[in-house]
Give the backbone structure.
Amino acid sequence: MGNRLFQEAQRYVEIAENANSAGKQEAISHAKNALSSAYANSTRAEQAQLAELQAKLDQYSTQ
C-alpha cells in the first residue's frame, strides 16, 4: 500500500511489539499517535487493518 502514514503505523506497532520493558510505554505512545494519524487519512480497507493493529497494541499495553 502506498499510504505512508499507514506504513508508519504498522512500523511503530511492530516496534512496540518488540520493545523491551524500559522503552515499551514510549513505543506504545508513538504507535498510538501513528495509528491515529493514519486512521484519519486512510481508506476503509486500511482502517480495518489499522483497527486490527490497534487491538494488537491494546494487548501490549496490558502486558
